[in-house]
Each structure stands twice: as C-alpha cells, then as structure tokens.
Write a structure and sequence with these properties.
By secondary structure, the protein is α/β, with parallel strands linked by helices. It has helices at about 5-15, 55-70, 90-100, 120-125, 150-155, 180-190, 195, 200-205, 220-230, 240-250, 255-270, and strands at about 30-35, 35-40, 80-85, 105-110, 130-135, 165-170, 210-215.
C-alpha cells in the first residue's frame, strides 16, 4: 500500500490542479481545451484561400482591414459575423488568418461550451509575446444560459478588460445571439419588457463590427463553383456545369457557399481530382 500522505497529495492535486504551462507558440493556430485546461496546437488548420470566397466582398474587405490593423499593432474592433448558414462566416475568419499568418498572428478557437473558462484563457494570452484572434464559431445563448456574462468581460467590461493583444471574432446565425421567440417571450411576460432582454441583447452591442451574411442568388452560387474549378484545374463545359450545379442545389433545397463547395467536392471526386 502506498504512503497515505502520497495518496492525499494526489487527491488534492486532482481537486486543485496546477496551472497549465503555456505552449511554445510555434504553431499559428490553437484550440482551447478544458479537460484539463490547455492549448492544443493545430499543425494544419482547415481553411481555404481567401480569394476563393466569392459573393461576400464587403464583409471580406472590412474584416481583412480590421485584422490587418490589429496584426500591425493598431486599434481594432471585435467582430460579430452573423446571418445565413453556409455563407462563409467561419471560413472567412480562418481564411483571413491564413492571409496574415506571415505577420505572426495566431488564431485560437474557443468552443461555445467552454466560454465559462475564457478568463483563464485570457490570462495565458495576455502574457504571451504574440497577437491573437480569439474565435468562437456558432455563438448563441438559450433562455437560462449565463455563460454570456463571462464573455462580456472579454468584449467591453471587467476591470482588466480585453488584453491589448487579443481581438474576439464570433460567428452566429442570430444577430442578437439569442432566438427571436425567446426575445419576444421575455418581452411579453416581463414586468419591464425593455429590461428583460437588455442584458443579453447588449452583448451583441459590444461588438464594434457587425458583418451580415445573406443567402446568395443563383449567379453568385455558380460564380463560387466556377472559382473552385479554376483554382483546382477542373475543366467542364459551362452548360454542363450550370445544369449539374442547379440540379444539385435543387435536391438540397438550399443555395449557399457550403452547398457550392459540396457540389464541387462531388464534381472533383467524379473527375478524379484531389483537393
């Protein structure tokens, strides 16, 4: 049997583990994990080239300018990318990081369910000799979710505030980060309707940039696919491409950048072209 004092020490360490050590920062992208707290390097981030993102020119240029200023050490805003599914919100964040990777800019992905631990993450990033885009995909909150309070300190509140070497980008299908029926329900049942949702809605107000993504029309959808074909050397007659692409989106019942990429993946596979 092991020493009782040794067993007690092990048990105490489980209850209160030592602070984790910061990584060596050799990678350009990391994922924040909370079991236990650590930053996991991502050797090859999953992203596409910035010039392949078609139909979102205004959002692309605005976010790229904001991120470039931040990478250069100048003031920059937190950004909320909201709107239609599959229109390139998360792809844009990752593509812009790839575009500016040579500047030394790092990308850290924070999962929605780990927002409560953002304070511990910021303490690590604050002390690092790099600049970071802290990124959360598909951010939203439900009726009884209090995690948004942790996020407010990142965006605009708290005595320490957001570290000067961190900017926060989030994507969401909801402009106010909460379901419309939840907003209407709280307004209809509260004694003071205006105050009932003000606290949660004010979270989205703390983003300096709101970039909207809207469903694409057929011309933009086809332009996306043409761009992929040109980039990867897939040769196909224009009338064949149009007929197959339109049929594909009809079977999906949707038209978006994601659907365009899924069609192109199928097309490249049928043509024996590796992506």
């Amino acid at each position: 049997m092991s020493d009782p004092l040794e067993r007690i020490a092990v048990a105490l360490e489980r209850l209160a583990p030592a602070p984790f050590a910061a990584p060596d920062w050799r990678a350009s992208a990391y994922v924040w994990d909370t079991s236990p707290d650590r930053l996991i390097p991502v050797p090859a981030p999953n992203r596409i080239a910035l010039d392949l993102l078609v139909g979102i020119d205004r959002a692309r240029d605005t976010l790229l300018d904001n991120t470039r200023r931040f990478a250069d050490g100048l003031p920059a805003n937190n950004a909320l990318l909201w709107g239609a599914r599959g229109m390139g919100k998360s792809s844009l964040v990752k593509a812009i990081h790839g575009e500016l990777e040579a500047t030394g800019l790092k990308l850290v992905e924070l999962q929605r369910e780990d927002i409560h631990s953002v304070g511990a993450l910021l303490n690590v990033l604050r002390a690092a000799p790099h600049r970071f885009v802290l990124y959360c995909d598909d951010l939203s909150f439900s009726h009884d979710d209090a995690a948004y309070k942790s996020l407010k300190a990142v965006l605009d509140g708290g005595i320490e505030g957001r570290p000067g070497n961190v900017v926060f980008y989030a994507t969401s299908n909801r402009r106010h980060l909460m379901p419309r029926d939840m907003i209407e329900n709280e307004r209809s049942t509260a004694i003071k309707p205006g105050e009932a949702v003000e606290e949660k809605v004010s979270l989205s107000d703390r983003f300096g940039l709101w970039l909207g993504f809207h469903p694409c029309d057929q011309d933009a959808y086809l332009a996306m696919i043409r761009g992929y074909c040109e980039a990867y050397g897939v040769e196909i007659a224009e009338e064949v491409l149009r007929a197959e692409a339109v049929e594909w989106q009809a079977t999906r019942g949707a038209r978006s950048g994601r659907v365009a990429w899924q069609f192109f993946t199928d097309l490249a596979g049928r043509r024996g072209i590796s992506l």
